[in-house]
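User: Hey, my collaborator sent me this sequence without any context and asked if I could get a structure. I don't really work with proteins. Can you help?
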Amino acid sequence: MATYASYKTLKADQIPNNTVTNAKLDPNARRCFCTKWFHGGVGACACGCCCLFTMPTGVRKAYWEIWGAGGSGHGACSCNRCHHYAGAGGGYFNAKMINTNGNCQYTVCAGGNYPCYNRECCGCQGCTTYVNGFNLSNFCAIGGHGGQAETSWANPCFSYYTCCLAPGNNGGDFGMGNHIGAWSGPFNCHCHLIFTAPTPAPFIGASQGQEINVCWIRCGCWTVPYGMGGQGGMTSYCENCCGQGGTGGAGAIKLTYQ
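Assistant: No problem. I've predicted the 3D structure and written it out in structure-token form, which is a compact way to encode the shape of the chain:
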């Protein structure tokens, strides 16, 4: 016996091909938001994540958010005088909204942190994160600045900003840079207390500081959050140095599609 519910049922073979197109559908029809993350591991020598991703059937819009890897930390680069230090910078951010289709393919690569353990004054820049594919061109987020150590006793330096990114920079709709951590002040040979802080990646967040207080020497920790600048090596007394900086946090990619 037929029911009211059976009259409302519409079968696929009752709809001629190409009569119901995306242009004829309400924007809220088939609304289904899905989110996928791409990232490597954490810690020293963490590999990134590079793969070929295929959009699922029925997807029409994709929003990419990407972060470069954080810069690596500085070393304690002199054995005969105290330093002042600037923490490493977090990775840059970039975002892009695109039209896409099911079965479109994208090369996705979240930057890792290569083994750049610094005993030198300057750390290494973090690795770049990027996505290539349909409706994307030169879309990337660069890595953060490496940390720096400076041995002048009298000339304090200050954080420098590289945060201003114009629309369309690095192939995105909206991007945000980062800056290296603020310099600690100048000290004499017996610098008993030194503090500095690496910066996090935009919109990921986290807070990290490093301090040395009459313990002469320390190395940077190997594990920091994704996109964050790495910790540096530090010394608080003359003739005790060779502190080694750690690597920054690996990059990450967030894809939201419908």
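In plain terms: The chain has one helix and 15 strands. You can pass these tokens on to your collaborator as they are.
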